[in-house]
Amino acid sequence: MSPDVPQPSVPEPQGDTGGEPGLRDARTLRPGSAIGVGVVGALSGLALLVPGLLTSPRSWALISTVVLGLVLLWLFVVRPCVVIHAEGIRLVNPLRVVDVSWPVISEVRSRWALELFVEGRRYTAWGVPADPGRPRYGRGLMSVGANKVRGKGTIEMPSKPKVEAQVVAAEVEERRTADRRRKDGRTPRIAHQTWDPVSVGLLLAATAFFVIGTFVA
Which residues lie within the region annotated Disordered (predicted)? Predict the structure, then answer.
């Protein structure tokens, strides 16, 4: 039997990780609106869930529907984010996690959300949507947006920092270029996408509970 080929892994932390284990100098980006919607949705869900649990007889259809709604709210609104760190970027999507280091990124775009192109594959960051009122970043830069474009390949930056695809794409491009100029080969070449077992398991459990509560109980 041939020996196992070791798979690349995200480097161990060597400094402040910003709350992300295994990522050096990490910074998590998530729109403030996602947190706001999540808080409002969670409070509304609890306002329906608590009376449903305390009322006799219990309405399992209502309870399972609320539980499924809360899980979907967390998965598709609160959980998605982008983590920028010293070696690259991590895209945390509803059910998957994508780890990409700077050397393997061939192109950065912003259409409806932040998009990274790696060896012909496109990875989309659910947690960083684009502002439709601003120019796209990357190809088609001049085709959309009401804001003025300053020079070639640059966009007018907002007066107040916002987590939007155009701004994050510009930072990714800048850090990718800076890493290329180092030319020391120290940054590992990483590009892999994995399912998140906790998210998948939670969705399957909530869906099964909904089916049982609605059609069986």
Answer: 1-25
